[in-house]
Amino acid sequence: MRATQTPPVGSPGTPGREAAITSPPGPGPRPAGRRIRSTQWAAVAFAAPLLVYLVAFYAFPLYRNIELSVHDYTIRAFVQGNAKFVGLSNYADIVSSQTFLPALRNTALFTLVSIAFQYAIGLGLAVFFRNNFRLSGVLRGMFLIPWLLPLIVSASTWSWMLNSDSGIVNSVLQAFGIGQINWLTSPGMALVSVIIANIWLGIPFNLVILYSGLQNISPDIDEAAALDGAGGWKRFWHITFPLLRPVSAITLLLGLIYTLKVVDVIWIMTTGGPGDVSTTLAVWSYREAFGTGQPAFSPASAVGNLLILIALVFGIVYLYLQRRQEES
Amino acid sequence: MIRLVKSARVAAMVGVLALSGAALAGCGSSASGGSSTSSAGGGTYTWWDPYPQHDASSDWTKRVEACGVAAGVTIKRTAYDTTALTNQALLSAQEGTAPDIILLDNPAVSTLADTGMLNTTESLGLDTSGIDPNLLAAGVIDNKTYGIPIGANTLALYYNKTILDAAGVDPSTIKDWASLNDALAKVKAAGKKGISFAGIGTEEGSFQFLPWFWGAGAKLTKLDSPQATAALTLWTDWLSKGYAPNSVITNSQNTTWEEFLTGTFAFDENGTWQVNSAAKASFPTGVIQIPAENGGAAPAPTGGEFLTMPVQKDTARYTTTKKIVECMTTTAGQVKTATTFAYYIPPTAAGQAQLLSQDPSLKPWVDAVKAAKGRTSDNLGTKYPKISQAMWTAVQKALSGELSPTAALAQAQQAAVKATS
After folding, report:
1. What is the interface pTM, i.e. ipTM, of the complex?
2. What is the pLDDT of residues A299-319, one digit of tens each?
3. A89-327, CATH topology level
4. Which of helix, strand or coil describes residue B47?
């Protein structure tokens, strides 16, 4: 932000450049202030669209979200604009709710398990496709399909496939003599099912980013290690994997933030149910706001703010790790 | 970064901010709605309804526009889907740009009325005396009426005649829960599937559960009564005995209808809106009313939309608004609405009589609508959505086996009391 507000040209902090720009050819010292101001105005003018954009689409919604969460916005108050200030009581209600702990646990499980598998499978596939073989381009393209399908299509397809009575997964299992598994409707399986679907959705993202990361690793290093007698596994663990670390870190961070706020897959497949067993914080927030006949914006935004905080914590951890890596 | 597109969409949903905040900003900057700009007498009147399936060239649009022409104005119709319509209405009321008429899903009427954005029918001088009281009830709060139903629909049990004949079940003998259970047992013994319904964790789940809940004599103000437990136990027993498939837990009303159309189910709990589809099924179908626990027809919840008239700054507009509403709710108009949609039963005795003279086969539906009950009735109003959420959560927990019906309903009652107090 600071960088956009005070661009280097014409900034008061760089006297040398100012002097160079503003020194007039004519004789006699002229007050430099006016010229500086005009370039400053120009700088502000150039930055203005970005600032307006940031305020309209980032600062205002964030402010509004916080404002919603500390007022008691019933629908009547929402229309008449006279919501009562209630401080943190929405947050207190959220934290003391029966749904809170299960939702927090589900969010942690959903996010961590999804990312672990997405990353592992994505990396495996990226390494696999690194050896260009015949049709590898086509195959790699096909792995992007989950990414290209509209989510309503892929999530609906998953819920049909996992249908207890007429789903294809159960009919295959039954053909092998395994009994009916209630994927979406039993308390023990619902979360597992949505995690499986989400892993499938997230693999392409990991594959693409990690694959491009692999392209940036010079094959010479690998070759040198091979000449020194390092086997495939050794080369992967001691050369490819460490060199891929920066790309891995950003992949995991982005994956984490995307996964934290997933609503659509879960909503379409189980609506967070049965009961609350597949409700994550994001689904809970959506349900409070839009899932019932009566929108409860204040608790919904309180849950949303908690999610933002969680994402922020991981963002800071990432920045810290990155800085330490740069220092070392 | 295709995923970014998706994540942006998710972000919009998760951060309520984006929808409420950014959408508000958008509405604020564009002068929307003809209501605030045009004046009374001539001009454009705005009309919102939840029928996006009917486009600008449909019979429905023509009918709406014709009522505008009769009142000497042009009607600009905009369609949203049901949930979006409520949100749009709230936003427009906040911005002071509400349309002249909103055709609103009946449980949402009390919600919007609570915000003070709707006129009462009394204040506009509209006559509601001919409307069946049980159908009007969803729009009545504290003795004030906030809308007029254009028609009503409800739930009943469709049956597959082929399967019942093969299993030796006579549908006319199903008068109470015991005889229904006997019929289901016979169907299962004959190797067919018994019944399908929608137990999904949304309002649809509550909608489908209510006939059994009310049929047992339970009340929405006490979710953990023995009657309520009896109703939920009826459902859980169907699952444990294999009369109903496990997938009912995630079934929507459309999904359960698709299951029924495959011809493998003897019964399906579904609504008036499937009448045409049932007639086209590959097997003969019939309809019986949902039985109450100890006999007789259970009250099923009413579905259907109300014409509501949001408050306008320019009160001179109401005269024309009233003309449009009256044009849409004449007896001939109601029958026309019924036939246009094929699933609406007129809300007046005169309208019902005229519809039956045109199509006597709709008799079971007219009876069902007469026995039906509004979800927000009993002066529950805006408490209903909270109670409903607690109820469908209990249904989900019990059907999935997470909790016993008694424990699930006890939890639901606690949650409902907490949410409505």
Report:
1. 0.75
2. 999 999 999 999 999 889 989
3. MetI-like fold (1.10.3720)
4. strand
